[in-house]
TrEMBL record:
<dbReference type="GO" id="GO:0008658">
    <property type="term" value="F:penicillin binding"/>
</dbReference>
<keyword id="KW-0573">Peptidoglycan synthesis</keyword>
<feature type="transmembrane region" description="Helical">
    <location>
        <begin position="96"/>
        <end position="117"/>
    </location>
</feature>
<comment type="similarity">
    <text>In the N-terminal section; belongs to the glycosyltransferase 51 family.</text>
</comment>
<dbReference type="GO" id="GO:0030288">
    <property type="term" value="C:outer membrane-bounded periplasmic space"/>
</dbReference>
<dbReference type="InterPro" id="IPR001460">
    <property type="entry name" value="PCN-bd_Tpept"/>
</dbReference>
<keyword id="KW-0378">Hydrolase</keyword>
<dbReference type="Pfam" id="PF00905">
    <property type="entry name" value="Transpeptidase"/>
</dbReference>
<keyword id="KW-0961">Cell wall biogenesis/degradation</keyword>
<feature type="region of interest" description="Disordered">
    <location>
        <begin position="1"/>
        <end position="22"/>
    </location>
</feature>
<keyword id="KW-0511">Multifunctional enzyme</keyword>
<dbReference type="Pfam" id="PF00912">
    <property type="entry name" value="Transgly"/>
</dbReference>
<dbReference type="GO" id="GO:0008360">
    <property type="term" value="P:regulation of cell shape"/>
</dbReference>
<dbReference type="InterPro" id="IPR050396">
    <property type="entry name" value="Glycosyltr_51/Transpeptidase"/>
</dbReference>
<dbReference type="GO" id="GO:0006508">
    <property type="term" value="P:proteolysis"/>
</dbReference>
<keyword id="KW-1133">Transmembrane helix</keyword>
<dbReference type="InterPro" id="IPR036950">
    <property type="entry name" value="PBP_transglycosylase"/>
</dbReference>
Length: 763
């Protein structure tokens, strides 16, 4: 608007009669000094001064009009949305400078807050690797030892000068001069990498501490940027000695040794405060590639690297060339031996639980578990002798309170550490029917009550009984013993699926259980063997839910008992449930699991024999056995009432026979080689010793197979032909017994069918 005023004032076409420019508007009041505007009033010779004065007046008006235009333009820009470029156009440099400085300051504050949350200083005081934990069986026998070898942190002021100098010379010579990042080191590393020299990283000790304490090993510019920021932050809050101490106390030195103290004790059996110069130089050289340079694996490479460290110490002025030449190659003194296995199926399950309950620190821990070494050996031997073919197996034994005393998660831990007790979720099959019948008994039914056992011919879901055996009605006890599918589904319809699900939840099942699916009654939902066995433990002790645990739990007070939320059945209803479980073994599908003492259990076989199970209890042991293929393919000739029931029986016979034996003497942490608990030992085979004709003869009988080992002047001898014949005879006996059992079952089934036909004919 005002630009138009300016143009019209300067346009000759709008000039007045006196030839002077006319602005196109008139002032309401004459400004000071306007008398000079009349041309006739100017003195002679003052034309130049008059012209200059008029120019100054025009410039003053232009400035005023520019300010008005700027104000109007600013008002118009503010009305525009912030994302429009015109909103930001025309800003003064001072405006931009003030806001850029404010944004940088705010960003700095945000970075400091972010580092305080994501990289607390206390984290650099903790070991970067979990310290070693040794698990002991209940009798003190080491089961497994896992974790890093970590010792107490070092203090720089207590270390000899040659120890500190060795690390500074090879890792960061200007450590005490820079602020966490060394520009010279970065330039030197970049130049070496570009010119084809040795590859260098250029990271300072502070950056390395930031990297292995707070960051991962990702090689990206983002991680490098975070590393530099954290290095600045560490330098601002910690002293140089504190940074060096945390670095030396956490760095990895190979052979599972973390920290200078652990490495010094491992390689030279010395405290770091007593290290010799050549020993310190070798340890300092390991940091470049700890696994490859570990002197226990490649001493020559470690020695060559030590020479490079010594040369760096000479170059840095820490020692003379003469002193360097006199340094000998250090002699290793490795005394520690770890003969305890690093893992077993039980240990892999127990260790994460142990670490959750322990405070993070440098101290090594020794923890006693609930595992019974005698029962674990029995389980290993029974599983090793089972004719599994190519199938896998899982076995877990626990007390009614949930203390796990034996665990086999597969046939061979070394080949497959996958734990089929705790990790594999498979269908429980008819073992799930326990929940159906417990729900029925809780609803008021009794073992002698009748239920329809006829074929289901209506509805979308029509399950079948094994071998097509049906009847008009059947008692709850017989239906459970014979594992009637149609009876279980009718219970589902009569009770409602929610009551069965609620019963399973009360007994401790946490896996998903679909609502509205009648196949649930037959065990089509998946769960772990540990979960299923824990539910049976709740019935065994009549206190549920039971949570399986690997470590002894202290006695609970009355308040803990009051607030635990545990439930139980009345004595009569609990008796009814045990009556069903007893009938399943005495006269039902679980006859192969029969013992000479009261025993209770249930068989389970899923569709197409993909899973075969037996879960039950006797004495103070609750045991679950599962057999199946990892690819879920059908088993050949294996059902829940067959091999799983026999494995359960064999384990129980051996386990309960020594239940009243002497209590083994506890040892805190015995030394010497210990084999994994999941591998059967030679000592498990009962041998007899006798002397005959000058020969020392070890005689034994394992599962009916005679074995004689003769020791005489000729050495140790075993009669392979006799052993082979005995094995063949034993296998023939097993096959014959199996045939006889099958024939007996067929005769019994034929007799039942004939009896049923006669009854129907009589009606």
């Amino acid at each position: 608007m005002f630009n138009w005023f300016r143009s019209s004032r300067r346009n000759p076409a709008h000039s007045g009669a006196d030839g002077e420019g006319d602005a196109g508007f008139y002032s309401l009041q004459e400004p000071y000094g306007s008398a000079w505007d009349d041309a006739d009033d100017w003195p002679r010779g003052w034309d130049d001064e008059r012209s200059t004065h008029r120019s100054e007046r025009f410039a003053d008006w232009d400035d005023r009009l520019d300010r008005i235009d700027d104000h109007l333009g600013e008002t118009e820009r503010r009305r525009l949305p912030w994302w429009r470029p015109a909103h930001w156009r025309g800003r003064r440099k001072r405006w931009w400078a003030v806001r850029i400085v404010a944004a940088i300051f705010a960003l700095f504050i945000l970075i400091i807050a972010w580092l305080a949350l994501t990289a607390p200083l206390s984290k650099s005081l903790q070991p970067i690797a979990s310290p070693q934990i040794t698990l002991l069986a209940s009798d003190g026998t080491p089961i497994a030892r896992s974790g890093a070898m970590v010792e107490e942190p070092v203090e720089v002021e207590k270390l000899p000068d040659h120890v500190v100098e060795a690390f500074l010379a090879i890792e960061d010579r200007r450590f005490y001069d820079h602020w966490g990042i060394d520009p010279r080191g970065l330039a030197r590393a970049a130049l070496s990498n570009l010119t084809g020299g040795s590859t260098q990283g250029g990271s300072t000790i502070t950056q390395q501490l930031a990297k292995f304490t707070f960051l991962d090993s990702e090689q990206t510019l983002t991680r490098k940027g975070r590393e530099m920021l954290i290095a600045f932050w560490l330098e601002a809050w910690l002293t140089k000695d504190e940074i060096l101490e945390r670095y030396l106390s956490n760095a990895y030195f190979g052979d599972n040794q973390y920290g200078l103290r652990a490495a010094s004790l491992h390689y030279f059996y010395r405290q770091p405060e007593k290290l010799r110069p050549e020993q310190a130089a070798m340890l300092a050289g390991l940091l470049k590639a700890p696994s490859r340079l570990a002197p226990t694996k490649n001493y020559d490479l470690a020695r060559e690297r030590m020479k490079l460290v010594v040369g760096s110490m000479v170059a840095a002025g820490y020692m003379t060339e003469e002193e360097a030449r006199r340094l000998p190659a250090p002699r290793l003194d490795v005394r520690a031996r770890n003969d305890v296995p690093t893992g077993t199926y039980f240990a892999d399950w127990a260790l994460p639980i142990a670490r959750q309950e322990l405070e993070r620190g440098y101290a090594r821990q020794t923890i006693t578990t609930t595992l019974d070494s005698r029962l674990q050996k029995i389980a290993s031997r029974v599983v090793a002798n089972a004719p599994l073919g190519n199938a896998q197996i899982a076995l877990v034994a626990m007390r009614p309170n949930g203390e796990v005393v034996a665990m086999i998660g597969g046939r061979n831990y070394a080949k497959s550490p996958f734990n089929r007790v705790t990790q594999a979720k498979r269908q429980p099959g008819s073992t799930f029917k326990l929940f159906d019948y417990v729900a029925a008994i809780r609803a008021g039914m009794e073992p002698d009550d009748l239920i329809d056992n006829s074929e289901i011919t209506e509805g979308a879901y029509r399950p079948k009984n094994a071998a097509g055996r049906y009847s008009d009605s059947i008692t709850l006890e017989d239906a459970f013993a014979r594992s009637s599918n149609v009876a279980a589904v009718r219970l589902y319809y009569d009770l409602g699926g929610e009551k069965i699900i609620d019963t399973a939840r009360d007994l401790g099942v946490t896996s998903p259980l679909p609502s509205g699916d009648p196949s649930l009654a037959l065990g089509t939902s998946t769960m772990t063997l540990l979960e299923l066995t824990s539910a049976y433990a709740g019935i065994a002790g009549n206190t549920f839910p039971v949570k399986a645990h690997a470590f002894p739990q202290g006695e609970r007070g009355w308040f803990d008992w009051l607030t635990s939320g545990e439930k139980s059945l009345s004595s009569r209803k609990h008796q009814y449930v045990e009556q069903l479980l007893r009938a399943s073994i005495n006269k039902g599908t679980g006859r192969a699991a029969m013992l000479s003492v009261p025993n209770f259990g249930k068989t389970g076989t899923t569709q197409d024999n993909r899973d075969a199970l037996f879960v039950g209890y006797a004495g103070d042991l609750v045991v679950g056995v599962w057999i199946g293929n990892d690819d879920n393919s059908p088993l050949k000739g294996i059902s829940g009432g067959g091999l799983p029931a026999r494995i359960w029986r064999d384990f129980m016979r051996s386990a309960l026979s020594g239940a009243n034996g002497p209590v083994p003497e506890e040892r805190p942490d015995p030394e010497g080689p210990v084999q994994p608990m999941d591998v059967p030992e030679l000592g498990d085979i009962p041998f007899g010793l006798q002397v005959r004709n000058g020969q020392l003869i070890f005689s034994g009988d394992e599962s009916g197979i005679p074995l004689d080992i003769v020791l005489d002047d000729e050495g140790v001898r075993i009669d392979p032909e006799r052993l082979e014949r005995a094995i063949e005879q034993r296998q023939a006996q097993i096959d014959q017994r199996e045939i006889e059992r099958e024939q007996a079952r067929a005769i019994e089934e034929a007799a039942r069918e004939l009896e049923q036909q006669l009854q129907e004919a009589g009606r």
